[in-house]
Amino acid sequence: MKPQLTHNKLSLFIGLALALSSGAALAQTTSNTTSPAPPKKVERLKTIMVTGSLIPQIDVETPAPVQIITAQQIRRSGFTSVSQVVRSISADNSGTIPNAFTLGFAAGASGVALRGLKADSTLVLIDGQRTAPYALDDDGRRSFTDLNSIPLNAVERIEVLKDSASSIYGSSAIGGVVNIIMYHTYHGVEASGEMGTSQQGGGTMTRANFMAGAGSLERNGHNEYIDIEYQKINPVFLSQRGFPFNTNNLSSLGGNNGIGGQAPGSGSIYGAVAPATLGVPGDLLTGQLIPGGLYQPLRPCGPGSTATTTAGTGSYCTQNFQGQYNEAAPKITRYAVDGRVTFKINDNTTGYINASLVQVQTVDQSAPAQIQNTSPVTTTSIALPPVLTNGQLNPNDPFAAQGQYALINYAFGDLPGFGSFNYVNHNMRLVGDLHGYYGAWRWNTAAVLNHTSLTENFYGFLNIAQLESDVQTGAYNFVNPASNSPATLAALSPTLASTATTDLAEFSISASRHLWRMPGGRSSIGLGASVRHDAQYEPALNPGNQALGLGNTIAIGSHNVGAVDGEFQMPLLHSLTANVSARFDDYSDYGSNFSPAAGFKWQPFKQIAFRGTFSKGFRAPSFAESVTNNANVGYITVPPLPASMIAAHHGDIYVQPYSLAIESIANPNIKPTTSTSWTLGTILQPLPNLSATIDYYQIKERNVIAGPNAGIPINAYFSGQPVPPGYSIVYDNPDPLYPNAPLRPIAVAGQYYNAYAVLTKGVDVNLHAHFNLPYGLRWISDFNATDILTWKENRGQGYLQFVGTQGPYNLSSGAGTPKWRASWSNTLTNGRWSATASIYYVSHLYMTTPDTNGGNYACDSTTLTGANLPASCTVPSFTYINLNGSYHLTHNIDLFGGIENVMNRGPGFDPLDYAALNYNPTYQQEGIIGRYFQMGVHIRI
């Protein structure tokens, strides 16, 4: 039975929320009819709720650094999704999840990782309320909010709190908070249409928005609006991009030729076979090359392949699968409907009901399945038998007449939908909110129901049992695959389908008021309480590990969370304000947590202010990490093996970089990750139209939850030491060319554990200027940059520094930790037209992964000879420029358009990145897309 809310529980929850909300409203209404109007001494200054506080603020510059991105800034940027906007923030770093990482566990989604502390340490809110996470976890274990599931057109602003906020919001806010603020009211009708395409081909986009609203809270007591959005982005194929981003053959650069044809895992659709025997009688997975045996094509090389002969190996067909089949960016289709009804009950009470439905479909295609693979069983030495089970000679084995087996390399190019997946994610959200005043108290109640449902369909994966049967019986024709019936193909590669869900149900109440006067003004207090139910149901997509070469995840669980929090703000002087806050969370599964925080803001002069914060935070274990029987199997690319291992195999394909399976097993005794954070900054405003903020941050995480560290048992194995307790290794079959050489590890297993500490330090710089120029022109400039001074882990053997490297490599897409990220936008406008130039920068990365090779900082991108690839072992920095503009054609019509990556800057060469082919899609995806043109029209009625 799925661990989610039953209909009775849902009804009870809704009833309780409405009863409490109505009760508060009724109490307020009754008070107004039996008591005089509130006395004038009750202060009701115009305030706003700022992310990270329970107390309404007059000044948006709080002790904690908050970056605000307005709807106007979003329009001027040319970005067309919340994901693009949020992931362009300079504080977003290692662990961020791009749409292009289609090989990841959380494919089809996009996530933000402020401070580089992984996507599960950044809390994403909508109008200050939590959201249900994506149904698939990053790396099979980290819950996060999918930015693709948030409508963009109705966004009024985005507030980015760059500080730990567990004292206000609880778990998952260690790195910071992204609060998406939607329009509360809207009046009018508007529609827009937009198209875009890449100069190099692919990625064609069609986008349309419609928004309509009516009513006035002041005149009518109500306002209603609806927002409808549609977006479709076509895929970008690697065949539309140039070398070296469309091939694994890097021999012209001094690298390896990974397209092969006879090597394990690189067979062509035409196949290659060599005479063999069996290392274990009767076991077709233990084929060994007969001494002196050579490979030959199973059938003549055809279109898309090249006949190749290698001395000592034989003849075969080479085929560039990446260039023929793979995509650099998937096809994405997004629909969104978002509606809100806001109503004014009386002068003191206002409420709203917000409902939204978002559907995001992601479709991706990759290369055909290989008969040779390493998980969950190894088929790298699979051999065709000379005699079938019916006693006949095997027509697929050209050596059958001699009684010899046939080692086979082969790619199944005839399977329906080969190598592709189709994700359809539905996000349904309902929010009810009431807020107002009761005497001197400002109160708020909210109820949230959020359900996500993700349907997965995978095509082209081989059923292991059926493959073994087809090889033994000859049911599949390798020599003439065109003769295979649809029934044969469907049995060999059945569609793998699954539906994963997440649920969130929360009721919260908060209140704030002024208290006694202090030297700097009135002190204030804010109080809050909430109850929440979380549930996740992610069954195995690959139950029983029936499919060859496919990872697997089981994440099923639920819990209830109760919390109380409070904040006290003290204006100690007119120039000095301090506040303290704290929150207590109680989880039904692992226990409780207390998170305190304190902050100050001192403004000795009008032009300068100083601020700082101290806070404790935590991240609760996910269901994947803590619930018994949950586990996942994923893959990383193994860095170069030891020189002795390479020499023993004479540098053949067996010891080239390959995929290592890592099985991470849930640990019911796992503890939450905890953190201590500091910020210290200054706010400068030397001129009314020029301001700057500079903030230093330091975050230390303890008891960080980690999966098994593959480097520990593998290093022990290659050093001749026993595998450490708690780990296990699965080894590959012998190398067919050198069967007596050491075996390579193909899988590592171990439990999640509270593994290590993380320490990160850095500086944020934000500049804003606006000037009036001659001829009615106005210039607006915004600069944002983050410099990471330190990002390091301590796994018990001292800290490993990752700044400027491609570590932590086992994290998400292995994108690395660039030291600098920055953006600078400049807008020139006269009111009728505007033009914006935006520059985005990410610094270089050294291609070393100390977290996977025992703390060694040597280059991990090398050839079989040990030479660096490239010689500098560095992914160069990446800078691209976007130009966007709009023209007010008539009173009701605006034309807009833009060019992304104006200079057509390509991505840096990165053969170490396993999320894409020879480049880093996390930070340089705009490079692979290339120069991109957009244009559209906006109509107001």
From TrEMBL:
Pfam family, one: Plug
Taxonomic lineage of the native organism: Bacteria, Pseudomonadati, Pseudomonadota, Gammaproteobacteria, Lysobacterales
Signal peptide (residue range): 1-27
UniProt organism field: Metallibacterium scheffleri
Principal location listed in the UniProt entry: membrane
Domain TonB-dependent receptor plug: 61-177
Domain TonB-dependent receptor-like beta-barrel positions: 410-902
Protein name as it appears in the record: TonB-dependent receptor
Topology in membrane: Multi-pass membrane protein
PANTHER family: PTHR47234, TONB-DEPENDENT RECEPTOR (PTHR47234:SF2)
Family: Belongs to the TonB-dependent receptor family.
Keyword Transmembrane annotated: yes
Localization of this protein: Cell outer membrane
Keywords for this protein: Cell outer membrane, Membrane, Signal, TonB box, Transmembrane, Transmembrane beta strand, Transport
